[in-house]
Write a structure and sequence with these properties.
The protein has 166 residues and is an all-alpha fold. 67% of the residues lie in helices and 0% in strands. It contains seven helices and no strands.
Amino acid sequence: MGNVIQIYFQLTGILDRYATVIPPLLLRLVLAWEFGEAGYTKLTGSNWFDQIAFPFPFNLLPPEISWQVATWFELIGAGALLIGLATRFFSMSLMILTVVAIAAVHWPTEWSTLGELLSGYRIVDENNDGFGNYKLPLIFLVMFLPLLFSGAGKMSMDAFIRRKFG
């Protein structure tokens, strides 16, 4: 029994040493890919923001400006996440963008019970049945939380700048 406990503590010690390297790096890479892909799709596609209703105060902006803001925050935010630069700022910015997207695009069109709301917790290609599809954006929000609270990790420009100038 003593050997098992010793091996367990050795393994958890190894995991502890890499806890500030590997998990934040992988979160940054996955989120950078997802938001970079979304931004690139907007950059090369046509503006469909005039077909949706944004929540206040985002509904005060013209659809073209909203389109450009979303496109460039996704693209620049993806690049920043990739290298780990201003990670907390871009995590919060992309979280706000995601919440707006959930409210405007992914939330069920109408719901009056918790069961109806939960019917939108799914991933679907098309959202024409009114039930919504907010599962993936909600997962992205949860993935941003460690980056927001703990930062980009040791393999990042944030850590390099902190070591060099902090």
